[in-house]
């Protein structure tokens, strides 16, 4: 018989994690796991539900960072006033995940723990250089997101560890995200582009950070596009140069079988769309 754990606070969570085995699963929104359970693709010996832990369902402003609970739903984050405009890329991304039903249940922690290359929030948290807060029977620890997400479906988490929060630093500038998906269906990202720009009063870019998702196994920094923007205003020529830099990167690193040629063509439009949010 499958065991069930329903911790109500962080202390109980750390205690219950000690009971899990490599066959156990952690569930929050369940938008992916429930499908796998019903199909018989996974047959865990235990389920631990994260949604009862209050600390995992809140967004809190600290002195120099924002802490986002891993069990916060996509809908909750889409509407969270604390995240705009500086962290607007998070509402941009969470507001475009799947369908309303999925957004009402799916969580940011699950999106990261699934480690899909097409995960909408991966490039955003990569761009924000988020720290991932991880619970275990030994307590809490934090690790950079690039050390947690290792590749498709792969993380560095042990079977008795759970993501409980993300910490993103406050900083100069604003952020935005745009996704290119499939028309006519619940969209899965074909390119996800997360951007942070710091601009002066004349609109000249002082610093830029651009991360692309769904073009490689993990999100990738588009340094040539950043260099094309810094020291310049967002003119048609500047935006076009940044778009070309993204297209060139996709041609270089994306396997042809993963819609490479289409992504090369579409990348310039995605760059235009995301940078238009900064005008």
Structure, explained:
- This protein has 279 residues and is α+β, with helices and mostly antiparallel strands.
- It folds into two domains: 52-169, Uridine Diphospho-n-acetylenolpyruvylglucosamine Reductase, domain 3; 174-276, 2-Layer Sandwich (Enolase-like, domain 1).
- Helix content is 33%, strand content 25%.
- It is built from eleven helices and 14 strands.
- It has helices at 10-17, 33-39, 74-78, 89-94, 100-105, 108-114, 121-127, 145-148, 223-229, 236-253, 260-276; strands at residues 3-5, 25-27, 46-49, 59-61, 65-69, 131-136, 139-144, 149-151, 154-155, 162-169, 174-180, 191-199, 205-213, 220-221.
- The strands form four sheets. Strands 4-5-10-6-7 form a five-stranded antiparallel beta sheet.
- A hairpin with a 3-residue loop joins strand 4 (59-61) and strand 5.
- The longest helix has 18 residues, at 236-253.
- The mean pLDDT is 94.
Principal-axis shape equals globular
**Biggest sheet features:** 5 strands, antiparallel
**Which stretches are poorly predicted, pLDDT < 50 over at least 5 residues?**
none
Adjacency order of strands in the biggest sheet:
4-5-10-6-7
Mean pLDDT: 94
Distance between the termini: 57 Å
State Rg.
Answer: 19 Å
Helix content: 25-40%
**Percentage of residues in strands:** 25-35%
CATH architecture of the largest domain: 2-Layer Sandwich
User: What is the H/E order?
Assistant: EHEHEEEHHHHHEEHEEEEEEEHHH
Count, helices:
11
**CATH C-level class of the largest domain:** Alpha Beta
Question: Based on DSSP secondary structure assignment, what is the total number of beta strands?
Answer: 14
CATH fold annotation of the largest domain: Uridine Diphospho-n-acetylenolpyruvylglucosamine Reductase, domain 3
Number of domains: 2
Structural class: alpha+beta
